[in-house]
Amino acid sequence: MVVSRALRLSALLVVTLMGGTAAHANGPALVVDAASGRVLHAERATDPWYPASVTKLMTAYVALDMVKRGEARLDQLLTVSEAAHALPPSKMAFKPGSQITLDNALKIIMVKSANDVAAVIAENLGGSIEGFAARMNETAMRIGMKESNWVNPHGLPDDRQHTSARDMAVLARALFTDFPQHGELFQIGAIQFGRRVMRNHNGLIGRYPGADGMKTGFICASGFNVVASATRNGRRLITVVMGSNSANERTLKAAELFDLGFERQAFLNPTLERLPASALAEPPNMRPVICDRRGPVPGEDDTGGLNAATEASSFSAPNLMAFAAAPANRTVLGPRGPVNPVRVWLGSNPPSEADLNAQEAAEDAEEQARIVARKAKRAVAAKPVDKPAEPSVAAGTAAKPAQPAPKVVNAKPEVAPARENGRATLSVKPVSSEAAKPAVKTVETPPAKPAAAAKKPATADKPEPAKPAPRADAKATTVKTVNADPKAPLPKAAALPKPAPSKPALPKPALQESDKTAKPTAPKAGEAKSTETKPAVAKPVAKPVAAVAKPAAPATKEAAKRN
How far apart are CA 75 and CA 80, in angstroms? Predict the structure, then answer.
């Protein structure tokens, strides 16, 4: 029997030393007999770990110790500061300047785990967060905590703040031993402020037989932690679980460890003080496993109604000490039952019915304001983007997409009528698209017969060049230039001889073919301008026109002399 126990003790030490290696991938876990301090189960018990909100157990110990020493009172009023009010959740969100008793503040941090209230306790009892943290470290060393360092009273992330499963078990034992009259502080199932009821995050209270405290904690870097206690037949055990992946896993593992511990006796098992130190110098960061994985970040509360069979058992070699096997009888955890909340309040005295009604009315108004703000935010987010209005379409007319006004091209250009003074008119069409650039087309109306007579002076039977008299009924050739291309050059107006303003009755000479094609006219004001010119288009037109233009030149000069 003695040899068997010696072998079990040796196995415990070996496995504890291997806790930080690949031999075990779970977080720290520990089961301790509260009366004797002997270890019933240990996994990575001395590894450094981020405490999260189990820090508030240390805050409670320091506050109760100050009350015991006469440095504070439970009915002492604590004032909420701006700095405490600004802390992130979990929080009560008391307005700066509000006052609350130390007794109510301790109940709130044990159940609601409010960070702002923990800061209020530290600032009022320690003078500042730093002053209270110094008291926390002094007290930790005095009660035998070896792997802990404290920099804040609430457990919000700080790389300098760390503890271990062994140290948290030491703290839990000290709370029960040094302040037995305050044991009910750690087993409150729910608190009520006004009409708000807030339940304890500890999933063992009201579900595991004999569970009577203590505190949970969670941040991404630590995973899900719990320090729990349970009593059966007058025997109290303390269980510490750290680094779980979810609140459910944390609760189920703690229940399994309680089942295991209540089945065993450990007369020769080592005490907490004899556990070997860890090889790790810094706590691991669990954020990649807990918060950076796919899906929503798990919540602090478990869903309830699960039992240990729903998840893989953590009792598999080499996770356990040699003397610890899986519990023979596992407790099935059902849903949480009803609890009677403990009322908390602001100020020194409990509120009257009128005060409670006024507080509820104020809370209703604040809730309605939040609802209205959320609805307005959703309405703004759901408002569709305004689209441009579509042009109205007459009955029986096919709808056409709206286009800018200047970009329309007539596919079949019409010849513009000639002016009374015989000048050619140019019809310039706006550009509609960035299509290919075809050549500029010159469209003529069929020339009148008198225009053919202009060629007769070139025959050999008449020695003198023909001098055709200008006829009033001669029709001037109308030129229509259509630019079918968006970037093709536009023709310029032909250089025409201007008639003398004093003799408007005389007919003007016909527009020469050479003038029509050789020199495009610059566009008038308001007309579209073209930036490119293609000389290759004008060459084939200029050659035949030049032969016609030569005999017509003397006729023009002769007519000018007669005028």
Answer: 15
Q: Cβ neighbours of residue 388 under 8 Å, at least 6 residues apart?
A: none
Task: Supply the DSSP string of 235-301, one letter for each residue.
Answer: EEEEEEEEEESSHHHHHHHHHHHHHHHHH---SSSPBGGGSPPPS-SSPPP-HHHHTSSSSPPPPSS
Q: Any catalytic annotation for residue 56?
A: yes
Contact assessment for residue 16 and residue 137, using Cβ atoms and an 8 Å cutoff: no
CA-to-CA distance for 98 and 89, rounded, in angstroms? 18
Residue 175 zone, left/alpha/beta (φ > 0; ψ -120 to 50; rest): alpha
CA–CA dist 128, 340 (Å, integer): 35
Are residues 506 and 527 in contact, defined by beta-carbon separation less than 8 angstroms?
A: no
Mean pLDDT of the chain: 75
Asked whether 193 and 344 are in contact (CB, 8 A), the reply is: yes
Amino acid at 52: A
Catalytic residue among 90, 91, 113, 314: 113
- Tell me the torsion sign for CA atoms 199, 201, 204, 210: negative
Residue type, 364: D
For residues 52 and 225, give the distance between their C-alpha atoms in angstroms, rounded to a whole number: 8
Average pLDDT over residues 203-224: 95
How far is it, in rounded angstroms, from Cα 203 to Cα 452?
A: 113
DSSP secondary structure code for residue 48 in this structure:
-
Distance CA 396, CA 61 (A): 87
Q: What is the 3-state secondary structure (H, E, C) of 140-161?
A: HHHHCCCCCECCCCCCCCCCCC
Task: Name the residue ranges covered by the structural domains of the chain.
Answer: 2-345, 421-458+474-495+506-563
The number of residues making up the chain comes to 563
Q: How many helices (H) and strands (E) does the chain have?
A: 13, 12
DSSP states along 320-382: S-TT----SSPPPP-------PEEE-SBSS---HHHHHHHHHHHHHHHHHHHHHHHHHHHHHH
Residue 142: which region, alpha, beta or left (left: phi > 0; alpha: psi -120 to 50)?
alpha
53 is catalytic: yes
Residues 204 and 339: their CA atoms lie apart, in Å, by 13
User: From CA 24, how far away is CA 316, in angstroms rounded?
Assistant: 10
* 441 Ramachandran zone, left/alpha/beta (phi>0; psi -120 to 50): beta
Is 475 annotated as catalytic?
no
What residues have CB less than 8 Å from 40, skipping those under 6 apart? 31, 32, 33, 237, 260, 261, 264, 266, 269, 324
pLDDT tier for residue 98 given thresholds of 50, 70 and 90? very high
Residues 123, 117: Cα–Cα separation, whole Å: 10
User: Which tens digits make up the pLDDT trace of 153-204?
Assistant: 999 999 999 999 999 999 999 999 999 999 999 999 999 998 899 999 999 9
Omega within 30 of 0 (cis) for the link into 278? no
The C-alpha angle 247, 252, 253, rounded to 5 degrees, equals 100
Tell me which H or E stretch contains 191. Answer: strand 190-193
According to CATH, the topology of domain 2-345 is: Beta-lactamase (3.40.710)
Give the separation between CA 426 and CA 412, rounded to whole angstroms: 15
Question: Of 53, 164, 222, 244, which one is the catalytic site residue?
Answer: 53
